[in-house]
Amino acid sequence: MKKVIDFISKTSSGMAMGLFATLIIGSIFKQLFSFGDGWQVGIDLATILMNLIGVGIALGVAISMNKNLTILEIASVMAIGAIAASLNLASYDNPIPTVSINGGSKNPLLIYIAVIGSIYLAKLILRKKTPIDILLIPIVYIVIGAILSFGFLYPCYYIIFGIQKLIEVSMPLIPELMSIIISVIMGMVLTMPISSVAVCIAIDIGSYPLAAGAALIGCTAQMIGFAAMSFRAKNSIGKSIGVGIGTSMLYWPNIIKKPIIWLPTILASFILGPIGVCLLNTMGTSAGAGMGSCGLVGQISSMEVMGYTNYETYISIFVIQILGSIVLTLLFDYILKDVLKLYTNEDLKLA
After folding, report:
1. Other residues' Cβ atoms within 10 Å of the Cβ of residue 239
2. Domain positions in the chain
3. How are beta strands 87-91 and 94-99 bridged, if at all?
4. Cβ-based burial of 126 (10 A; exposed 0-12, middle 13-18, buried ≥19)
5. Which regions of the chain are under pLDDT 70?
């Protein structure tokens, strides 16, 4: 089981790197180049970056697998990523595969499965070198990759569609409960060695801006909250900032050793999620929701969706997401660490 968890951790991190270098950076550039009258060349370049998501994920996953792939194999895997990203279904009730050079579902889950499956199956077939490897390798990889992409298109599509429907139906009916669930779960995913960005993009949580807002609050609470705990535990300011605008995943080794240190940030996201969503209509995008306060991408995306002149935008960002995360996390940290003595500063020391 540990090997499976380690494998998922490494490959999902590779997938996250591919997402960062393409879709995330492209999204940031697109926002920047759209200010004012906009700069069309910059917007076009950003769109190209965003459309390279399949290639980026494929490269990140392939390298993270440590399978000693040759340059030709890596190039073939990147082609598989592009193929998987270009596939989609006509609609949920008309499951006809469609292929679009510049479109497609760009489903990270489908790309991830197609790439990993192709590498393992191709390695089984291509056990010995041959004089025609330069033709044989890309043909085998791409054929296998295309078959897997079409084969897994249906289950990947309906898994994502099912989650989307659950959010779509539940969020308006029980927004308080759903905002708590989404905020807590997505915040925990962000801190775990799993890509929260990939999850949010895969389920297209941005299609339901309030759900994306809940995820953004939860992810930010983890990062800002752990940064505050880190600073209070007398870690260096550099390490604390690294947690706050980098990733709370830096605390994962500490959480494995002492799980109770995770409780303050979880409780903060539990409280802040429904307040931010139900009272301030906090909203976000798919990419921003999974990023939290990493590079402040989540906050920038929230401004884009909620409006730059909307006062609720800035109350949500500065009062709920930042100040609220700091105050509540430190309150729970004080109770659990100083009053109940459930952990010590030593448990919060970063390597």
Report:
1. 17
2. 1-172, 174-351
3. antiparallel
4. middle
5. 1, 90-96, 101-105, 193-195
| For the chain, the helix, strand and coil percentages under 3-state DSSP, each to the nearest 5 | 80, 5, 20
Position 171, amino acid: M
- Amino acid at the residue 221: A
**pTM metric for this prediction:** 0.73
pLDDT of residue 90: 67
pLDDT of residue 101: 65
Tokens of 179: 């905002």
> Checking phi first, is residue 310 left (phi over 0); if not, alpha (psi -120 to 50) or beta?
beta
* C-alpha to C-alpha distances, 146 to 79, 81, 113, 118, 319, nearest whole angstrom: 10, 9, 12, 9, 48
What is the rounded CA–CA span in Å between residue 125 and residue 234? 54
Residue 347: the pLDDT is 92
d(CA 250, CA 236): 14
Tens-place pLDDT, residues 18-62: 877 887 788 778 777 877 777 889 888 988 888 888 999 999 999
Sign of CA dihedral 70, 110, 247, 265: negative
